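Lab notes, practical 5.
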Amino acid sequence: MITPKTINLSNINFLAFDCYGNQQPLFSTKAKIWLASACFESLNTTLTQQQKQKLAVRKLASKLIAQLSTQITAIEISQAVSLDDSHYPYRLQPFGHRVSFSHSQQQVACAITSSQMNIGIDVELNGVSDKVCQRYFHRNELSWLQFLKQQGTIDDDALCQQARQLLWMLKEGSIKAFNTGQLISGLKTDVSLPAQRLLLQYQQHLQDTQSFNATTAFCCTQSGTPPLLTTGSSTYIYLPYLQLVVVMAQGD
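Output from the prediction step:
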């Protein structure tokens, strides 16, 4: 029988943030967004990679839900909590809290937020090729990448690769958060401004400290992200060492 028991999770991280993207203790009253990430393995050779990822991310979600079962507003221990993944956006029922999943290779991630907010999470371990950039990236994003390429050093080449990956995660996370249903137009939306701000924060962090912390996070907020978001603002959280992005916006 194929169940989450066939999946082993490791390197599990639980994190919490307020609605502005500032990191908070997991059980802080200010926490409005909770996320988890993990690596996984399966000894079941009959499963496809997609099946393994699906089981792993749901097992991780159940662990996060268990952590928060007495903390999320209105959830009582006596009430049965279940994941409704029959259609997107996924929700934590019976309370309507929104849930987002992502996976890449052997890494999975999930995020939960209040019903007043849209959320999208994306983890990406694969590189983003020039061909993909030329096909899907906005001209402003391509101009920024070209600028990074022209720096001409090994470090700057690595930075360019990181920038590509960050842009892609922001796009994927935004599509999930804003639930447009339009994959191609969503990928072509310009996210160069939040990408530049987040990458600059990361560069400054590297200059200021030599310490390594897998849960180090950077955030920024942008008012209006047309055509995906015409009113209000969106918040972006970047965890470079976990290679994931979270995008948040006011919900319906």
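Observations recorded by the TA: The first helix runs from residue 49 to 68. The chain has six helices and eleven strands.
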